[in-house]
Amino acid sequence: MSTASLGTALVTGASSGIGATYADRLAKRGYDLVLVARDATRLQALADRLAEETGVKVSVLPADLTDRADVRNVEKRLREDTAISLLVNNAGIGPKGKLVDDDIDYLETMIELNVVAANRLAIAAAQAFAGRGRGAIVNIASVVAYIPERFNGTYSATKAFVLNLTQAIHSEVAEKGVRVQAVMPGLTRTEIFERVGRSFDDLPPSMVMDVNDMVDAALSGFDQGELITIPSLPDRGDLDAATAARFALGPNLSRDKPAARYGVVNAG
Predict the structure, then answer these.
(1) Which of these is catalytic: 22, 31, 106, 155?
(2) Which has the least CB within 10 A, 2, 12, 27, 78?
(3) Is 146 a catalytic residue?
(4) Max Cα separation, the chain?
(5) Tens digits of per-residue pLDDT, 77-105?
(6) How far apart are CA 31 and CA 85, in angstroms?
(7) What is the spatial distance between Cα 57 and Cα 47, in angstroms, rounded to a whole number?
C-alpha cells in the first residue's frame, strides 16, 4: 500500500500509552492522524511533535468518551470524514482492585468508556467503512477476556465484550472490504496502573511488556491479517485450537430438548 493511499487513522485514547504509541507508529507509516483524548494540551503536544517529525497531517479532537455527547462528536467525524480509513479504538480505563472492593460508580464509568463508547465508535466505523468499501478497525481488548477468574470481573467483562464485538463485526464486513482486528495485550507498561493507584513494581517483570514492543507486535499481526492478536502468545496454534473448540460447541448450543444428562423427561 502506498503512502498516498493510506488515508487517515483516528486513534482514541491517544494522549499516552498504547494510543500515543499507535499514533507514533502510524504516522511513521504515512497515515495522517486524528487524535482523540480528554487531555487537549497533551494531545496537541503529541500532534505537533508527530507532524514535525513525520510530515503527516495531524489534527486533534479533544473528547471525554465517558460523555455521550462527546462520543457522538467523534462518531460524526468517523462518518463524515471520508479520508478516515482506520480506527484504533483504544480508549479505556482499568480497575482499582478486586471487584468486591471497587467503587461501583467507577466501575459504571468503566463500562461507559470501555463498552458503550467503544461499541458506538466501532459500529459507526464499520457502517461508514462498509459503505465506502474499504477501511480497518483495530479494537484494543485484553487477554483478561480469556481469564475472568483471575482479574476484576467488570474489567474482564468489558474486554470480553470488545473481543466478541470484533469477531461479530468481522463476520459482517469482511466481504465488504473492511479489515477488523482485536488486539489482546497482557500487562503492558503504560500509565493505566498509575492512574488507579497501582504500580508495575508489584508485578513480576517477566509478565509486563514494554508498550513499544506490544504495539509493534500488534501491527505485525495486523499486517499478517490476524483477526485476534495476542502479542505474547508463542504458538498461534494454541489460539487456533481454542477457537476450534469454541466452534465445536455450535451444533449443541441450541436444541429443542434438554441434554439427557439433566434428566428432564417431560420437556414439553
Answers:
(1) 155
(2) 2
(3) no
(4) 73
(5) 999 999 999 999 999 999 988 889 899 99
(6) 9
(7) 9
